[in-house]
Write a structure and sequence with these properties.
The chain is built from 13 helices and nine strands. It has 283 residues and is α/β, with parallel strands linked by helices. The protein has an eight-stranded mixed beta barrel with strand order 1-2-4-5-6-7-8-9, surrounded by four helices. Helix 4 packs parallel to helix 6. The longest helix has 23 residues. The structure holds ligand C2E and magnesium ion (3 copies). The site of ligand C2E has 19 residues, from strand 2, helix 3 and strand 6.
């Protein structure tokens, strides 16, 4: 191609990392403005009780509606935020928005408490302000601590187990839910993880979808161990009704996957709750 363009002329060498670096820098600059420009949003994916197929709660998942790039997935911008000072404000945004959305929704769900889970980053866990930030958000939004579940991964906890335990114990003490996310992708030592006050484990979709012959054995032992430890289990990535039935029989409490419902906007959540609880009067 370079040759066709002009005889012997060779196009300037563009190392891939250079454009990648510039792109990353641009994204970081854009991300810095995204919060004030209200380009960051949360979508909510239903978490469904396997016993009766009712919605028990939602996981808040962040999206960035970029004016030029369209919707940027969190896997692209969360890592950027984590290596800059942006993860702090992003994390607060998610916790505050999810809490206030939940308080609003609950007025339509009447006496049936729903919950919302929010993903944390390791920087938030290791930051000494998480507990006081959380208290401030709960006070401001008037959200019940028991209706918010914080999702953390094993690797986040292992980065600094002492600090993690200190913070998680305090959050548990005020009644917040704590879920161990991506279970089955790391070392996954449930025995070790009992030192932390998790009340829920989320089995990663890679494990749920694993077609191997040992899959039922793995799932059965994870679920029965979790139940013996008084933990609830959410299975991610369920794709078929058979899988849902199988996991339900094994004692898994909840499912969360496209099969049960893709992430939706807060408005759609409200519409869904109004349909399900038509008689609930607003406060
Ligand atoms: P996660 O916490 O494990 O969230 C589940 C991811 O699986 C979500 O991707 C969800 O859309 C996707 N998913 C759900 N059901 C299915 C399914 O049936 N099939 C497939 N293939 N995927 C499914 P998403 O929204 O792109 O989020 C990716 C990751 O980004 C999350 O993984 C979480 O680690 C992180 N993340 C999302 N929002 C936040 C946030 O507000 N803060 C932080 N720190 N991390 C976030
Ligand atoms: Mg999660
Ligand atoms: Mg997960
Ligand atoms: Mg995950």
């Amino acid at each position: 191609r370079a040759k066709r363009a002009g005889g012997n002329r060779v196009e300037p060498f563009q190392p891939a990392f250079r454009s990648f670096g510039a792109d990353r820098l641009q994204l970081e600059t854009d991300l810095r403005r995204a919060i004030e420009r209200k380009e960051l949003t949360l979508v909510y994916q239903p978490i469904v009780r396997l016993a009766d197929a009712e919605i028990a709660g939602f996981e808040a998942l962040m999206r960035w509606d970029h004016p030029k790039r369209g919707t940027v997935p969190p896997t692209e911008f969360i890592p950027i935020a984590e290596t800059s000072d942006l993860i702090g404000p992003l994390g607060i945004f998610a916790l505050e928005r999810a809490s206030s959305d939940l308080v609003h929704w609950q007025q339509y769900a009447g006496d049936v408490p729903i919950f919302v889970s929010v993903n944390l980053s390791s920087a938030q866990l290791l930051n000494n302000e998480l507990y006081s930030d959380m208290r401030a958000i709960l006070a401001k939004t008037q959200c019940q601590p028991s209706q918010i579940k914080l999702e953390l991964t094993e690797s986040m906890v292992m980065e600094n187990p002492e600090q993690a335990r200190l913070v998680l114990d305090k959050l548990k003490e005020i009644g917040m839910g704590l879920a161990l996310d991506d279970f089955g992708t790391g070392y996954s030592s449930l025995a070790y993880l009992t030192r932390f006050p998790f009340d829920t484990i989320k089995i990663d979709q890679t494990l749920v979808r694993d077609g191997g012959a040992k899959r039922p054995i793995l799932l059965r032992s994870i679920i029965s161990m979790a139940r013996d430890l008084d933990m609830q289990v959410v299975a991610e990535g369920i794709e078929t009704e058979e899988d849902a039935i199988e996991l339900g029989k094994l004692g898994c409490n909840f499912g969360q996957s496209y099969f049960f419902g893709a992430p939706i906007g807060g408005d759609s959540v409200l519409r869904l709750l109004k349909e399900r609880f038509p008689l609930t009067k607003r406060a």
